[in-house]
Write the structure tokens for this entry.
Amino acid sequence: MRPPVLLDRPARWLLGALAAGALLVVLGNALVPQGHALHVSTYTVTLLGKYLCYALLALALDLVWGYCGILSLGHAAFFALGGYAMGMYLMRQIGTRGVYGHPVLPDFMVFLGWEELPWYWHGFDQFWFAAAMVVLVPGALALVFGWFAFRSRVTGVYLSIITQALTFALMLAFFRNEMGFGGNNGLTDFKDILGFDLQADATRLGLFLASAAALASAYLLARRIVTSKFGQVLVAIRDSEARVRFAGYEVEHFKLWIFVFSAMLAGVAGALYVPQVGIINPSEFSPLNSIELVIWVAVGGRATLWGAVAGALLVNYAKTVFTGLLPEAWLFLLGALFVLVTLFLPKGLAGVFLHRKGRPT
Amino acid sequence: MNVLEHARRLLRRDQVFPMLMPKRLAEPDTRHGPILYLEGVTVSFDGFKALDDLSLYIDDGELRCIIGPNGAGKTTLMDVITGKTRPDAGSVWFGQRIDLLQLSEAEIAQAGIGRKFQRPTVFGGHSVFDNLRLAMAGDKGVWRSLFDRLGAAEREHIESILETVGLADHAGRRAAELSHGQKQWLEIGMLLAQNPRVLLVDEPVAGMTPAETERTAELLTGLAGRHSVVVVEHDMAFVRAIARRVTVLHEGRVLAEGSMEQVQNDPRVIEVYLGEDDDD
Ligand SMILES: Nc1ncnc2c1ncn2[C@@H]1O[C@H](COP(=O)(O)OP(=O)(O)OP(=O)(O)O)[C@@H](O)[C@H]1O
Ligand SMILES: [Mg+2]
């Protein structure tokens, strides 16, 4: 018996493709002149950067759903929280350049007639602080939520429903102006990040590369986890939770650990997403987002990691194309895709690949 | 302990902080004989008493067979011992000092009680080898499992268990692909790997061929002595082959206890159980 290797063939392919793709994008954007067939516009760079953030989010979900069987229907909440933490930093960077020119308060607070910065906005003028919050806030929420849910042995559909309720509740809360996160409009009109102008091509390219690097590192970490004995315990919990308990493992600890780790990855994805799209608002908490996320992973194939990444990239590319052609039809199409995959490709696209190679998953 | 003493304990430099020490469960104390004490255990499901004021003692190192008609409460009994079901009344002790009702399923397993389910339950997604590796006794904490490496000694131990349960040729196969009988063997192998003081074995030979059944009988009788073994089985020929002491359960109570012969000749037992159908 060979132990599983960290960099197996799909892992080498994925990392290779990511590196090659990133290189082509950088060359195409920075060196190939505009108008040339190989030129990559800055708009495309940002679009691809956004896809990479989604891929990172899908990877995070695959760890809990694919490997541990926890179907979270609220994972976009962790993504949005990471996004808000980054958004708060970006808001504080605006300084006197806002419409009202207030040195400390973001525009929406001046508009609401607030005199002082709420306590939870302190520290967000520092990048390191915001960066820490990007992982700590989603992680803490996952810890508290998971602790209660797993300790009370909530599983299956019930768990899915309460995760959905969680993200819905957060959405309603963030819609409120009194919460101090910009209400309906969210946080936007960002100017710069770490001193770099967010509208500049080079900054856009930098953010794209940061997303690619984050995805690659998260993928490696996730591989490290799923190839360890810990990863085997996760799969065992998914397949037969009771057996794992009677073998002497505290199932709750394992679930909680991977849930928190996954929430942190989702937070990082959200934090990289926000400066690229230039806005974060409560609609990111929408339950629909979490459900779309589940579809990406289902389409790509669960419990392979690379399947989740591929699924996120493909479905989002399709979304971009179709919403351009037939905006109203996209949700129907997505629904149909999900039904078809569930019925005919229970293991997703990854399953097709593995099957063709004659290797059962 | 007062505050000062607490502080002094925390500040001692010759040992790790108490809260960082791995929780070690004491060995069960069996100086008085029994390793399992069940007293007045009652379990009811919506008013229906699956176990009714049941008392049972298992001696250290003994091999006990538990028989009884369907629905007698045999599986429920194992659920109570392993922490899966909490009784409404009664007490369950492991040795004289460990109160099993205070422990979680995982803690009970770590304390030294292993079980095989009635329906063979293995980790279908993992190879046979990995199933045994996961069951292997040792530190089962999160951090440890993140950094655990398969050592040569562990590999050898797993290979020897594979030999014992006759699955050496199937080490790399996914457990889900095994036949019913092979899964039974694998689960028994997992129990061996876990190396518990007490083995609770629920219907080990269901779905096995006569030859396999015979090997299981050998294996289980061989384990007794070093381990305590509690076997639930419907296969009377098998029970007769291994039984030393037999407990008959009926409607959640102990109906009779003794050697196979005594039990078989007990008129109450004949009435409720053996009389109906000998070899079901
Ligand atoms: N979770 C439960 N909820 C309701 N009733 C239950 C539950 N578990 C067991 N029972 C009932 O308790 C009784 C005892 O069940 P148990 O499984 O212990 O019987 P058993 O002796 O193992 O029978 P068998 O020989 O069929 O395995 C049965 O009547 C069963 O229907
Ligand atoms: Mg039973």
The mean pLDDT of chain B is 89. The pocket of magnesium ion (ligand 2) is lined by residues B 74-75, 118, 202 (CB under 6 Å). Chain B touches chain A at residues 82, 84, 104-107, 109-110, 114-115, 117, 121-127, 129-130, 133-135, 137, 140-142, 145-148, 150, 171-172, 174, 190, 194 (CB under 8 Å). Chain B is about 35% helix and 20% strand.
